[in-house]
């Protein structure tokens, strides 16, 4: 099986799995317990926290472990919005966010918050002028993904941060689920985010683990109430084995970043050239300016599902635009936002590379795809 | 790498006439000790400054990170070198000034031309380099009298040396230049701060801790060890003497009136500390006491406690507010450890109403019915001694997991 769906999830690294098992065997005590075993587990937990803090250029106390990207995004949005009603009830986000952001802000909309959704151009990128224009005195939160999960567009985080911090009191949340380990993303004073979301299973870590990290002390209220773990911000016994495994996956991701993005970029460029050979049958959603590890494109007059099945028969796993929306019948909101010709909207498929892919995988894909196009499009392909 | 050496300017020791040589040697030894993990450093000393040669990027980074914690350094600057060639000098001057690019500031070029054969005169170098920097940095302007930044160029025999950045050091005096004292380390917020302040004045420390299992847990001892270890980052080894104190504490509780327990307990601690001090050849005892903070820290209490010894008791925090102490604890990185909630021996057996104004005669009278000397001897004899910085065994346990 050639797995090219790494933006849906990744295969955990062996080392990460080993860490998970070893911590479960040796340091299973509750890190809040005051006995020796608990203190030991807590020490290990703090080490994991510190390691992630170093990677993100913040301090250990500002790193919290969650159950995944969705929880981290929900926490950032509800936590900041509800804690800052004295400043206002205005939120800015983009129309191409992940559902864990979009659904959260929509639910706040129902509670009387005002939300502006920034438009994107045909490259999937927001306009900084629009961002600046939409910022208001009562804006409390700007939430923006770094890399789009469906087509790889990169948002200008640094420029956005400067505009937000210069022109408002809003907190700047960046959903870095698709970018951590692929592009540099870290706290950088007024020139970077205030809050970052990371998911463990997208970086060859384990499912059910995520991180929310803060640049500094924030005014935020918890989603989960209870025993007051994680400084009262995220109750529930901390899953030490998951936390340590996530810290390890994050370290490996950053250490390998240069090497792996170089590889992804090579494949990305290679495939862009390869796909243009199919002429007007193909529309590229991903551009050279986008993230290297995501390549999505659409085949004219075909359903994505059919392409996926045909490739799967040849041992190649890819997905339609995103795993979250692929089971739904309607066209994805990201595809809608890109303003594509209607006979391309249904045929979107996405390739996403991971640390375990090789040059051979890409060759195999090209072979299989050529076959599939011959089979499905026949002579029209010429 | 453009960086060739780090230039260190001494703190107060510049003023210390005849002991100066000792102090410089001490500082050099402390720097070597602090950086023992990045190979032996090549350090050349002069009357008022010191040069550490840089061999690689790693040395540069570690030095820049840790030098600000070493006492006895007033300030330091990374120094770059280039060929004795005007074009190279111009290039280097821009790299050095790069870090100031974003700010509006004033600067001047200062030239020391010890190689008199160099074709350009000092003022010519000033004009060439100054002009070049100005043309490339619109935010920077010239100010000769009191510039924000001084770009210093030294024309030496072997090369051109250049520096601009001046980084504040920790000040104070090299640890060890003012003798040795014994720090009473409880595990709270105050005592590590007291230790730090004395270290800053050049005092080498050993620490003593009173351990009363099972009333106090291994966690509280662990915490004290972490604190002792943290203090070592200010440039010296620290030995921690852990005194088995349960027996004495239980006996005190049985033998003296409850409102005197606290005073007597402190007196016994002081007697033990004094014995240990004698054995290790320390001159003073350091405590984190701050006037009026708790019942044992009123002037009356301090008098009653002090009554057991003539040794100088050094109380650097005596006039500090709690918040000031916390500030320092946060700066030196001991606060987080100190506030972990474990029982220490001072908080067990505390009566509801300890005497805030104990009388020495009364306390001595109550104690006179009990023979403490032998117990004190035994406690001193049975103490355990730990050395810091220790090869952390906790860390090894987690090896490979992260």
TrEMBL record, chain A:
Aminotransferase class V domain boundaries: 2-363
Regions annotated as coiled coil: none
Protein name: Cysteine desulfurase family protein
InterPro entries per record: Aminotrans_V_dom (IPR000192), Cysteine_dSase (IPR016454), PyrdxlP-dep_Trfase (IPR015424), PyrdxlP-dep_Trfase_major (IPR015421), PyrdxlP-dep_Trfase_small (IPR015422)
Keywords, in A-Z order: Pyridoxal phosphate
Cofactor(s), names only, from the UniProt record: pyridoxal 5'-phosphate
UniProt xrefs under Pfam families: Aminotran_5 (PF00266)
Gene3D superfamilies in UniProt: 1.10.260.50, Aspartate Aminotransferase, domain 1 (3.90.1150.10), Type I PLP-dependent aspartate aminotransferase-like (Major domain) (3.40.640.10)
Superkingdom as given in the UniProt entry: Bacteria
The organism of origin for this protein: Ureibacillus aquaedulcis
From TrEMBL, chain B:
Class in the EC hierarchy, top level: transferase
Signal peptide: none
Cited PROSITE patterns: THUMP (PS51165)
Pathway: Cofactor biosynthesis; thiamine diphosphate biosynthesis
Annotated CDD domains: PPase_ThiI, THUMP_ThiI
Pfam families the UniProt entry points to: ThiI, ThiI_fer, THUMP
Subcellular location per the Swiss-Prot or TrEMBL entry: Cytoplasm
Annotated binding of ATP, by residue: 184-185, 209-210, 266, 288, 297
Keyword Cytoplasm included in the entry's annotation: yes
UniProt keyword annotations, A-Z: ATP-binding, Cytoplasm, Nucleotide-binding, RNA-binding, Thiamine biosynthesis, Transferase, tRNA-binding
Superkingdom of the organism of origin: Bacteria
The UniProt record lists the keyword Cell membrane: no
Reaction catalyzed: [ThiI sulfur-carrier protein]-S-sulfanyl-L-cysteine + a uridine in tRNA + 2 reduced [2Fe-2S]-[ferredoxin] + ATP + H(+) = [ThiI sulfur-carrier protein]-L-cysteine + a 4-thiouridine in tRNA + 2 oxidized [2Fe-2S]-[ferredoxin] + AMP + diphosphate; [ThiS sulfur-carrier protein]-C-terminal Gly-Gly-AMP + S-sulfanyl-L-cysteinyl-[cysteine desulfurase] + AH2 = [ThiS sulfur-carrier protein]-C-terminal-Gly-aminoethanethioate + L-cysteinyl-[cysteine desulfurase] + A + AMP + 2 H(+)
InterPro entries referenced in this protein's UniProt entry, alphabetically: Rossmann-like_a/b/a_fold, ThiI_AANH, ThiI_fer, ThiI_N, THUMP_dom, THUMP_ThiI, tRNA_STrfase, tRNA_sulfurtransferase_ThiI
PANTHER family: TRNA SULFURTRANSFERASE
Function: Catalyzes the ATP-dependent transfer of a sulfur to tRNA to produce 4-thiouridine in position 8 of tRNAs, which functions as a near-UV photosensor. Also catalyzes the transfer of sulfur to the sulfur carrier protein ThiS, forming ThiS-thiocarboxylate. This is a step in the synthesis of thiazole, in the thiamine biosynthesis pathway. The sulfur is donated as persulfide by IscS.
Name of the featured protein: Probable tRNA sulfurtransferase
